[in-house]
Amino acid sequence: RGRVAGRDATRRRELEEAATRLGAESATAGRHPDGRLGDVGSLVRRTVRRALGATGADAVLSLWREDPHPDHRAAATSALAAAADHGLPAAEMPLWAVHWTDPALVRCEVRPVHLEPADLDAREHALAAYVSQTRPLAPNLDPVLPPAVLAWRTEVLATPGAG
Questions:
Q1: I want to staple 133 with a disulfide (CB 3.0 to 4.6 A). Which of 38, 83, 116, 144 is the partner?
Q2: Nearby residues of 150 by Cβ (< 8 Å), 6 or more positions away
Q3: Sign (positive/negative) of CA torsion 41, 45, 47, 48?
Q4: Residue 101: is it exposed, middle or buried by C-beta count within 10 angstroms (0-12/13-18/19+)?
Q5: Cα→Cα distances 46→8, 27, 32, 80, 150, Å
Q6: For the chain, what is the mean pLDDT?
Q7: Does residue 61 sit in helix, strand or coil?
């Protein structure tokens, strides 16, 4: 599998920029291996626990624990465990599952979340910070997030155990 030089640092910068654009007080990106988070799950969980403790968060929004991308599954598992460690409520958000997964295979309730025009504008502005995801990385490659995905007007939350 090919590696893109500097991808980890690029993704951290993009996260920080997107968080700034959303007005977030903080964004924490551990220095964990992109593409191999499952190999360092306990370290990811500790990173999330520290971030929750440092920010005084009152809830956690995680990626969906069954997302088809292995890093997303590992991040979700760690975030949900850290939320439980802190006694915080957590919600899950499918990311790649929305366009990679056969809906018949989804074993949970998936609810649409209505976004107001200001929310949509903020989402678009934040997503634009992810140049490595929204533009081709090479001349013959499509962007990771195609224009049709960027144009979505709804987000969804998953409720495991329901549905």
A1: 144
A2: 124, 127, 134
A3: positive
A4: middle
A5: 19, 15, 12, 12, 32
A6: 86
A7: strand
Domains in the chain (CATH in brackets) are 7-160 (3.40.50.10320)
Report pLDDT digits (tens) over 51-101: 888 888 899 999 999 888 899 999 999 999 999 999 999 999 988 877 777
Calculate the alpha carbon distances from 155 to 9, 17, 37, 120, 121 in Å.
27, 21, 24, 10, 13
Separation CA 1–CA 120 (nearest Å):
35
What confidence tens digit (pLDDT) does each residue in 98-134 have? 777 777 777 788 888 888 999 999 999 999 999 999 9
- pTM here? 0.80
The residue with tokens 């992810």 is 130
Structure tokens given for 106: 């989804």
Contact between 133 and 14 (Cβ < 8 Å): yes
H/E stretch holding 92? strand 90-93
Q: How far apart are CA 85 and CA 122, in angstroms?
A: 31
**What is Dmax (Cα atoms) for the chain?**
47
